[in-house]
Amino acid sequence: MSFTGAIGSGGRRILTALVRALTATRVHPNVLTAVGLGINAVAAYTLSRGEFLYAGLIVLFGAVFDLVDGEVARSSDRVTRFGGFLDSVLDRYSDLILLMGMLVYYAGINRFGYIVLTAVAMTGSVLVSYARSRAENEIDKCKVGFLERPERIVLIIIGALTNRMAPVLWVIAVISNITVIARIVYTWEETQRIGQSKQPQPQEEAAKTTTAASSDLSEGFRSA
Question: What number is the average pLDDT over the span 25-44?
């Protein structure tokens, strides 16, 4: 087994043991998701103070909860639609709150250029997820491009631990927005392939019928 393979195997064993331990405690997966957000909030505060090394360690610790909440949900048979929704929403908060910490830091040291850079990175980070979510309402899959949330978290950890956050923000700002553009292009190509028209669903037809009927009834009252 290679060195990297041994590391991966060891990491999986640790993760499996942690999931089993958390499952045995009967802790709810949604609680783990919320705890992860709380840890990232602490990391954001630490980033805002410019204490990058400590912030990197805190983000690394918080990433554990991102890894285990879904696994605990599956192992304890608590996978729910709401749980998936909550996890996605709180992940967006975690993404943004870390970058908000950087905004506060750069504002405190009066670095306007890096404030703008962080804002661009925030925009790209949100739109990477939104573009995929919205695209998959129209097509089956839209997972093209790079720099989804795990990659962004790893970059932030590396930037914090090495005190090289500015280059990391450049990478996130540029590549995340390139990913958004790639997803727009891919979605356009897929919609061209399958056809632009979208057949209304029965529920949509029923809603249109109800709306039309209500409009006709209102017109009748006004005429009377």
Answer: 91
Query: Taking the domains of the chain in order of start, what are their residue ranges?
Result: 8-198
What is the per-residue pLDDT for 17? 80
Show the CA angle centred on residue 158, arms to residues 97 and 163, nearest 5°. Answer: 85
Are 36 and 62 in contact, with CB atoms under 8 Å apart?
yes
Q: What is the pLDDT of residue 28?
A: 87
The two tokens of residue 131 are 């573009």
CB atoms within 10 A of CB 23: 19
**Contact present, 107 and 126 (Cβ < 8 Å):** no
pLDDT tens readout for residues 184-219 = 999 999 999 887 655 555 555 545 444 444 444 343
Task: Name the token pair of 173.
Answer: 């700002």
The CATH code that applies to domain 8-198 is: 1.20.120.1760
pLDDT at 145: 86
* CA angle, 77 then 81 then 82, to 5°: 105
The token pair that represents 107 in the structure block = 């504002």
Predicted TM-score (pTM) of the model is 0.77
